[in-house]
Please model this.
Amino acid sequence: MKNLTTTQVTRFNYLMNEIGTAYHEAALKLGLSDSASMILYTICNLGGSCLLSDIYGLSGISRQTLNSALRKLEKDGIVSLAASDGKKKTVSFTDKGRELAQRTAVRLIGIENEIFAAWPKEKQDLYLSLTQKYLDAFRAKISEI
Model:
């Protein structure tokens, strides 16, 4: 079958996949599954405690995988879940979880911050703006399918 994408779209897609692979490799080096890494990362970015729905919305992890990973993290004493405002649940780090997050997710966040800090602000803003435009347009096109 003939190549269906432009060179730019192909490169963009491969770069996104390679970034995903790099995060997978980082999770493995830190002794975490991809889903556990993303959960810890998300909770860190939201201040050490957040709604379960925030993790669903921000992590990109399927509900089934997220629920399984959270059960394991809860069983291991890394997070605790508590009822919050009706049906909502809050996910919070335990002391053990905060220690694990410092050794793992906080290190990843530091690496990301270091990389972005090396770019001029205009480049950071351009990258984020174009990525958001792409995401918004892609979601709009997908809704038409």
Notes: The chain has one domain: 7-118. The beta strands are 49-51, 79-83, 89-93. Residues 107 and 113 are 10 Å apart (CA to CA).
